[in-house]
Amino acid sequence: MHIIFLGPPGSGKGTQSDLIVEKYNIPHISTGDMFRAAVSEGTSAGKEAQKYMKAGHLVPDAVTIAIVKERLSKDDCKKGCLLDGFPRTIAQAKALDEICQELGHPIQLVINLVVDEKALLPRIEGRRLCKVCGATYHLTNNPPKVAGVCDKCGGELYQRNDDNAKSVHTRMQAYYSQTSPLIDYYSCRGICKNIDALRSIEEVFKDIDKILRKL
Ligand code: AMP
Kind of pairing, strands 109-114 and 157-158? Predict the structure, then answer.
């Protein structure tokens, strides 16, 4: 099962990814998480990525494609994986086609989370992540049992430094100009499924799960 998650920032890709990974036991490949880890480790890719991430711009394709190619070549991706936040440009999608061809694992499904733009900012501003395991919460829609503490591992929750109104505006612009054309790119192949993501986490997951069970 090789799957891509598409959707604007705040559409719930991270939350739904956590649920899919738990049920289907496939690696969750989030380029955002990979870049955040590289930033905190202080690697050269992290230093390069940080300049763009802080302002809400996309990291250059060459850097992004290189980290994904390396990750997808690992053995644990042979049985499948969930790509969250990649591809985000047509150039990345074309590079992914080549990588998949080399590895012999075509993308089977693209799940496009559809959310009204007005709903996105409150979702993003209330988002909190676990410093240790990366689990995603929301202060009102999906709060942890104990404020500030991860239910899964007890780690401390934090707010991403790019989850502020200014950077979110830039990220939205990047999404609508550079990423949304991917909906057509994959729809032409008949593998893109639109999901109304303005509903509860459970309802959205139920629909996604129905599609995954048929793969
Ligand atoms: P995310 O966690 O998916 O919201 O990503 C956080 C930030 O990481 C984005 O705003 C970009 O700066 C960078 N990023 C993540 N994935 C990509 C990608 N596929 N291409 C370029 N930049 C990315």
Answer: unpaired
Q: Which residues are catalytic?
A: 13, 88, 127, 160, 171
- Report pLDDT digits (tens) over 108-145: 999 999 999 899 999 999 999 999 988 899 999 999 99
- With CA atoms as reference, report the closest residue to 129 among 100, 149, 109: 149
Residue-range domains of the chain with CATH: 2-117+179-212 (3.40.50.300)
Q: Is the dihedral of CA 7, 93, 70, 66 positive or negative?
A: negative
Atom nearest to 87 CA in ligand 1: 19
Nearest CA to ligand 1 atom 6: 32
**Residue 128, phi then psi, degrees to nearest 5:** -135, 145
Separation in Å, CA 56 to CA 24, 53, 90, 106, 148: 31, 5, 19, 30, 25
Record the tokens describing residue 73, joined without a space. 């070549």
Tokens 């303005």 correspond to what residue?
Answer: 198
